[in-house]
Amino acid sequence: MIRSDRRSWPLAIWLALLSGYVDAIGFQQLGGYFVSFMSGNGTMLAVRLAAPHGPLAGAVAILAMLLALFVAGVLVGTLIRLALPRIGQVAVLLLVALLLGGVGVLGGWTAPAMVLAMGAANATFERDGEVSIGVTYMTGTLVKIGQHLAHTVAGRELWGWLPYLLLWSGFLVGAGLGALAYPLWGLASLAAAVAGALIAAGAAWRLCPAA
């Protein structure tokens, strides 16, 4: 994964920070639902379906919509990568910026736009048709930290866990920044996310293979 292309580390960590930032804003805007952490939404959906009259009843349609929009974002992002193999990474990140800015802030469809953007962001890093670095879901990253720490303890490698720790830390820092920004500026906080996505697109352009 990350170890295979060290040039991708800084961009991946930056996007993890961006994803954490957007997720924290979305979490507050939606009153406890996630725009990038779909495992959490999936658990909440299952609980509500299993106990429709319990203390957590309701919001099934909202959760189902969030999950569907996330998958749709991944689908669109992947199609872009397939259609534009050389500059697909850049195009995906420009789409993320467009969704967070043009549609999210100006169009009034903020929550769907955030979810679509976070889904699409996961198509940024692909290898052989599969996601090579997930930038919005961190459970797998924690697993990688544990696996590579085991290899370190066994004497097989020294620093293999570090990029995954930086990836997770980036997400955590971003979420903290989003949690601080939203009470102060509301949805206008997404302007920083748009800028972050544009910066990422510029960095991705520099990583594009030669024609």
UniProtKB/TrEMBL annotation:
The chain crosses the membrane at residues 56-80, 92-111, 162-182, 188-208. The keyword Transcription does not apply. InterPro entries: DUF1275 (IPR010699). Keywords: Membrane, Transmembrane, Transmembrane helix. The keyword Transmembrane helix applies. It comes from the Bacteria. This is DUF1275 domain-containing protein. It comes from Sphingomonas yabuuchiae. The lineage of its organism: Bacteria, Pseudomonadati, Pseudomonadota, Alphaproteobacteria, Sphingomonadales.
